[in-house]
Structures are given as structure tokens and as C-alpha cells.
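## tool: complex_structure
## caller: assistant
## args:
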Amino acid sequence: MAGGGRMSYRIKVNGEPHLVEATPDTPLLYVLRNDLGLNGPKFGCGLGQCGACAAIVGGKLTRTCSIALRDVGDDKVTTLEGLGTVQKPHPLQRSFIDEQAAQCGYCSNGMIMAAKVLLDRNPNPNEEEIKNALDDQLCRCGVHNRVVHAIRRAAKALAK
Amino acid sequence: MTDKGLSRRRFTQSLGVVVASFALAPRAAFGQAPGALSFSLRNNRRLEGWIRLEADETVTVFTGKAELGQGILTALAQITAEELDVGFDKIRMVSADTSRGPDEQYTFGSQSLEQSGSALRAASAQARGILLAAAARRFGARPEDLHAKAGIIASPDGKRATFWEVASADPDLLKGDITVAAAPKKPGDYSIVGKSINRIDLSGKLTGAPSYVQDLRLPGMVFARVLRLPRYGAKLVALDEAAVRSLPGVVAVVRDGNFLAVAARREEQAIAARNALASAARWSDDAVPLPDIADLRGELQKLRAETIVVGAAGQSEPVSDQVKRVSGEYARSYLSHASIGPSCAVAWLKDGRMTVWSHTQGAFPLRGDLAKVLGMPNARVDVVHMSGAGCYGHNGADDVALDAALVARAVAGAPVKLQWMRDDEFAWAPFGPGMAMRVEAALASDGKIVDWSYDVWSNSHAMRPGQAGGVNLLAAWDLGSPFAKSPPPHIPQPFGDGDRNAVPSYELPRKEIRNHLLLDAPVRNGSFRTLGAHGNIFAIESFMDELADAAGIDPLAFRLAHLRDPRARAVLQAAADKAGWIPGEKGDGRNGRGLAFCRYKSIGMYAAVVVDVEVDRKTGVIRVPRVVMAADIGLVVNPDGARNQLEGGIVQAVSLTLKEQVAFDRREITSRDWSGYPILTFSDVPSVEVILMDRSDPSLGAGEGSLPPASAALANAFAHATGRRLRELPMTPERVKASLS
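## result:
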């Protein structure tokens, strides 16, 4: 990481503007977690391989470990927290809870964010489309089938 | 039910008196003698050390077991709510915590329901009895005439009092010792146990509520990273510390022997400093020669070994000459836990106390080893469990806890969060050891096995912190004044080490099973889900199919002919029926189906698995469209939770079998990111159907037992499809193509 001084950046996360101070090359992940106190995006590999750190940046599924703060610009950032809360979960979060589509839950952030981007693009995906859309999101506990069921369930709920 | 919020709210409260002593009793920890007060209760006799009624009309429940993603806290909450007769939503779980919870050693071996579950069942039944007796005195009634439900005690003449009202009259009411006198409920009377209640921790984890040790943020906390040796055996020759100290935000560079770490105000600064540390450090060229993984079986058999006969029968009886002799040699690769999140810990040295928040499987054993390395008394070190990424055994959790504590000592007063980088996790977390297996058997003309000879070679799968004779923590070996590794323990059958499940559950009149515990470990090994059972069941169940083939008998019928245990027979039949098993059906060169059976640890859950495969003969890629399993796990506390565990084990097994092997050249581990250690992804995941047998016998544990037979059934399906057998895992496209050419 180049030395470079810290600079101020305005970023919009989960609908709220934030002023953060960090070097331009700081991966967005650490800003989200440590400056904004968010827990959804998680450090998994730092290499853009696993998807645990995923958020939606400018409408695109983004590995926040691999995008620099300077490159976020005016793009709106949505994290897991921006979808819903324990009290008021998003239909995707609701369906993941209903299907108990997690074991350790560490990869779930990436699963849910990838599913959100998929459903925004394709509101009624079939099983194969879901598997293709999530193929780069790694899960080690083996809850893949539950994740697919949860996304189908959320798609139905959202269609109502 | 709050999402385990209580333990989080109390982070910064002063930590209480240590209530349980540390004592490693390996044999006891691996199982308990029937009839006696259980291991967990013997070590933790005080009732209020398990159950406490709180002023806000909740019940705090303490367990020494840790939530690893397996849902144990939910299952234990169900057991307590059931037996105590309070609402499930009144229960607040406190997971393994040396400052205030019971010492139940490790969370391992699919034993948490057996150990903590029965302890809480006994404690709850006793607490309920005490509350009823106190209410009887208050009402002037007989305890047996009172009725307790949802935390309210009622008398026939309409008097009512809550548990909390009864308890508030006598602060010492629940302060006695646990006895075995109170009789727990009969399974037929259960209304909470046996229900698929949602996990208490998942809604928080799925919405981004602070849930993991990674989410713990303490005032003034700094971020740390560690820089490990480039390879086993390398020594730090020189370090330009000044180059790292001068970087923005760096607050400490820790150097002690070969141990190197940095701490910085911001996380990205700590990572940058770690990269700088890598450039600033010069290492010796020393290396430990690593085995040639292209010939794993041969390499393992070359190592020094201690050989123990772990099972024998009928050796004095001669074997007739009129038999068919069959033999097979098998191997399993070194495996990585490959958890999605690298290991992490937060450590804080404050007022002479070291507190470490960790996703360890053994808070108490880890505390003991941390205290040894830090030169502090046990009573001044605490380990508090918090969730981490998925845990499938002895991963880097304990090591990173020591790393963080060493940095915390260097920045006294400031809490330190240290997470490993991806390459730390892949290269340094203990591997599931590579294994070699050899079986030879004799078949009589009636198709019965009349002789069985088995050998397994592997390093110890049990190298955890807390073991006698040394310290099993990575950094401890690298310090300027290093600690020795603990030698491998001797874990008797039926639990076993590399020999777990080496003794078949089949009726074998004449058999000898030898475990060759390898004494020199070229790479760092540890406990990975099922220890040796995965390799042993792969070998035994592959070989059972080879024997069935030699005898000209269908694999299902052949197994049934060698099994008397009705529960074993029942799972085999149930899986075969559900899958539509057709006796004598032939593979067509591309499609096939395989079967396998395992009774985990010989005393745990029963599982039979049927796996379907499609083999692409050109690319060598094996696809698994469908897996069916029947499991008998005894009493099912939470059916959906159990299914989740069993399904996950099957998917993980398919991944291990088709893809996974830790790669290294002769000097260095080369699997250092996901491209060097691919795992199964969505497009490769089979559909999974699980049949849970309906039983009211004691719970047998469901966390691991689906994995070994799933691997073996997949190997059998490939052989069934192609007529060729792969005896080495993983079954990579290269090996598939080589076997078909």
C-alpha cells in the first residue's frame, strides 16, 4: 500500500452521507467496518476470491476488499445493514432466517448481497440461474441448497 | 430470545471469579462412564454455575461448549427450557467463558449434547424440583400436587407464583451442589425438545448485528497482524525494524525470536506494516523437507511409527485355505479447514489481567496454555468465547489468540484485534493429516468375510492446546525462549485418533487392526472434522464394495450380511429404499451409484449414504447430482438443526472427495489462497435428502457422522459407474482420466 497521506472522502452508505478520512488506496472494506462500524461485510481473503466482503456499490455486486476508497466516488454503497434489521429484516434476510440458510453465517453477507443484485435484475430466477449467480461466493459449511431455497422463497415473497 | 446479547453487553464489565479449575483428563473428556455423575457435572458441581434466575425474569444458562456454527446454543437452550419448564424465550445462553462458565474442556467429537446437554438436563431438573419444593412450603401444599409450566407454579387451589418470585424469597435457593437425584422428564412428555426452533444467533448474524469476535470493538483498540516464517524451519536472521516503525499509524513492532507482529491504529495500516515487515525481514534458508505428495502413501509409510493393535479377535483360530484373498491400499490427502474467515482474536492486558476473546473450541485448555506462555497465573488470564467463521476442528483460533496476547503485552492497556491474513490461515492452521490405509481380507465361498487385516498410517490428529507435556500454540514454538510441542496423546478406542473408526462395525470373527501413529510430523497437523474416521471409512467402505464384487453379491446385501445391529441395518435399508436402490444394477460407464455405512466413533450416530455420480470421461470431471442419507442420531433435539449439520457434512464430504488437497513442494506449503485450495461451489453442489430416524434413545451427536460415509459412497459410485476404482483422495480430473485410460 503506497504511503500517501490521509484524505477526506464523502461516501454515501445505506442512504446516509459520511465523511471519512483515510488514504486513497484504503480498501472500502476497512472503512465500512472500522470507520462506520458496520459488521455485514467481512474479511475473508482480501483477494477478491471468496465474496465474504461483498456490498452493492453503484448497483453492482462489489468485493469491498478489492475496491479502493478513491474509486467509490458518488456511487451509493449498500451493505447488509442497509437491507434490514433484526426487528425489520428484508425479505431476503427473512427467507434466509426461515430456511435457516446458514451455519456459521460468515459467508451469509455475500450470499444475501449477491442474491439482492440477482433479484434486482431477475425477479424470478430458477435454480440454475441462482447457482450461476452465486458460483463465486464461497461457503464452507455446506448450506448451498438452503441458500438456493431461501432465494427462491424471497423471490416469491417479493413478487406478492 | 435475544441473540446472545447478554455476553456482548457484559464485555466491558469486570470479570468475575474463576469458578472452575483446569484439569486435563483426556479419557474422561472423550466420553463418560454410564451411571456416574458426568464429566461435566463432576468438574462443575455448583448448580448456579449452570443455571441462574435473573431479576428481569430471565434464566441465564452457562455452558462450557462453544457455538461453532453448529447451533449448539439453541439446542442447549431447548433442553434447559424443556426440563426447567420455562418459556424458550426466557433463556439467555452464555457460551464457554473461563471467567464465569463451567469447564467442559473442548467443543469437539460431536459430544456437546451428550455432555453439556445431559449436564443441563440434570441441573434443570434439580432446579425445577427445588423451586417446586420451595413453592410447596410457601403455599402450604405438597410438591407433588403442584404444577409448573412456562415458569409459573400453580397449586390445585389456585395459588400461583412465578419461579422468580419463589427464588427471590431465598437468595440461597439455587446455590447448592448438583446431585443425581432429580429424575428428568420422559421424552414422551417433551414439548420444546424435538421442535425445529430457529437458531437464536442467526437473525443477528444475517442482518449484520455484532455477532463475531471480528465485530468486537473496544475503546482505544488497535489492529495487529502477524508475519510468520516463510517455511518450516526458517530462522529470522535480520530485521530492519526502523523501516516498519516509521510507517503511518504503527504503534508497535513485536519481535521475539522468530515471532514477528505489528500493531497500528488502523487496520489497513497494520496490513501495510505487515507487508513492510515481510520486506524488512531476512530469513535463513533452513527448511524441513516435506513429503512428495505425488507418492503420499509411500512417503507416510517411510516415517518412524509407533504401532499399536487397536482391535483384534479370533487370531488363534486358523483361516481355511479355501478362501479368496483380496487386498487394497488407499490414501487421503492433507486437508485444510478452509474456513471462510481467517482466525481472529481480541486481547486486552488491563490492570494485570489478560482477557482474550476467541473462537476457540476449548476456552479452558487455551487459558492454561496462554498463561504458561505469558508467565501469568491461570487466575489472571481469561478466555471468552465469541463466534468466528465456521469451525470444523482445530484451526488457527488458538494460535491467533496467543498472537494477539503477545501483541497486547507490547501495547499494554490497549485492546488488540488481530486477524490472520488468508495465507496465514492456509499455510499455518493445522492440517487434517494425510493418511495411508491398507486392508486385506479373506472371503469364504458363502461370501462371508472370514479374516480381516487392517493398517492405518498417519500423524496424530490430536495436537490441541491444553495437552500435557508442552504447549501446542504456534507462536510459542517461535519465541526467543521457545516452548516444546506436546507429544501426541494416546486416545483409546472407540474414540481413537488416526484410528478413529479403524475398527469396522461389521461382524468379523477374525480380525486385527493396527494403528501406525507416525512420530515425525513433516507438516503441522491437528484435528479436522472426524479425525481419522474420514480416511478409515473411505478405505473400509471402498473395500467392502471390492469384497462384495469379489463375492458376486450386491453391496447392500453384502453389508447387511455382516451387520447384526438393527439400527445399523435400519439406516442402510432406509437410505437404499429412499434412493431407489436396485440390487445388481450395473453402471453404464458414465452414470453410477454407490453406498456406504458408518457408525461414527463406533458408538455415535449411524449413517448410510447413497451417492449418484455422472462421470465425464473426456474431462475427468465427476458430477454428483444427488445424495440420499439416512441417519440415526438418537433423540433429536432440533430436527432442522440436525438436518443442517448432516447436509453440511455431506456437501463438505463431496468437496473433500473431489477437490481438496493441501499442496506443497518439497520446501514450502503452496496452497496459500483459494486458487491453491479450491472447494466445491454452488454449481457443483448435489441435491441432498436426509432421512432422520425417529428415536428416543440418548442423543448420539450429529455434527460429524455424515461426512465419512458420504466420501466413501462417492468413491463407490465412481467405481460402479466406470468399473475402475480410485483409491486415493481427492478424485481429481487428472486421476479420473488416468484411471480410465
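## assistant note: The first strand of chain A starts at residue 7 and ends at 13. Chain A has a mean pLDDT of 96. Handing back to user.
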